[in-house]
Amino acid sequence: MKKFLIIANWKLNGNLKFINKNINLIKKNINNSLSFCNLSIAPPYIYINYINNFLKNTSISLTAQDVDIHIKGSFTGETSIKMLKDVGVKYIIIGHSERRLFHNENNNLISKKFILIKNNGLIPILCLGETKEQKAQNQTEQVCIQQINNIIKNSNINIFNKTIIAYEPVWAIGSGKSADIDKIQKIILFIKKYISSLNNKVAKNIYFLYGGSVNYSNIETFFKTNIINGFLIGKASLEIQNFISLVKKSDKLISLLNRS
Ligand code: PEP
């Protein structure tokens, strides 16, 4: 069975005090204590290497929140895939709605990042999902497929093999209101079927995460179906005690599902 993957996206939050206080807490409570889940932490770039030193030889991995498309050279302010690899990163989030919105990232740039990550042996987490306006106009499926097609167009369907797609409705992110599980199931199934129509084996090798206001109190609803292979969590990953409880609760809920 594939392990459920929980990614803590700390975004532009935290400092050395926060990390020193919490990273050992996470390590002590989580490392080797989970049977069905894997945990990965996505801190701001500047703290990745520091945290890597704490997480070496643990089951907890590191995720980067973005990557540049260049490998090296005169690109002030950027961080390359080789650097992320160098400091022990396993997954890289790309296409997050906040990067699309605040940094004008488009599907073309995101597809370049996806291909670069894959070709360098790391695992891309492609975020996709509709805005409130697109939802109102019933464009969810079209928006998600467009984002996928752009990557296929610049490479081919095999590029999706062993990658991660995070369905993150933009209106649900940070809003406190998660998407309805039936709707999540419908759209993930739709994406899966689409990819499967192009290559069934590849479709089977993709992890599907859900992100958008997941918290300790609402996680049960997401386990009503086994279509979700993990969560991408923003706000709720910053309250560390609650977050540890959320991760442990997820592990327990999956163990109960496996038994029944
Ligand atoms: C996110 O930003 O990817 C996210 C899911 O945030 P939140 O959990 O705060 O909605």
Please characterize this protein's 3D structure.
The longest helix has 20 residues, at 240-259. This protein has 260 residues and is α/β, with parallel strands linked by helices. The chain has one domain (4-65, 77-259): TIM Barrel. It starts with a strand and ends with a helix. It has helices at residues 16-30, 45-55, 81-86, 97-102, 107-119, 132-136, 140-154, 181-198, 200-204, 219-222, 240-259, and strands at residues 4-9, 37-42, 61-64, 89-94, 123-128, 164-167, 207-211, 230-233. Strands 1-2-3-4-5-6-7-8 form an 8-stranded parallel beta barrel, surrounded by 5 helices. The protein contains 11 helices and 8 strands. The protein binds phosphoenolpyruvate (PEP).
Features:
single chain; 260 residues; alpha/beta; TIM Barrel; 8-stranded parallel beta barrel; 8 strands; 16% strand; binds phosphoenolpyruvate
Fold topology:
Blueprint: E1 4-9, H1 16-30, E2 37-42, H2 45-55, E3 61-64, H3 81-86, E4 89-94, H4 97-102, H5 107-119, E5 123-128, H6 132-136, H7 140-154, E6 164-167, H8 181-198, H9 200-204, E7 207-211, H10 219-222, E8 230-233, H11 240-259
Parallel strand pairs: 1-2, 1-8, 2-3, 3-4, 4-5, 5-6, 6-7, 7-8
Helix pairs in contact: 1-2, 1-11, 5-7, 7-8
> What is the H/E string?
EHEHEHEHHEHHEHHEHEH
Question: Helix/strand-derived class?
Answer: alpha/beta
**Shape from CA axes?**
globular
Q: What's the helix count?
A: 11
Overall number of strands: 8
How many domains, as an integer? 1
Q: Beta fraction of the residues?
A: 15-25%
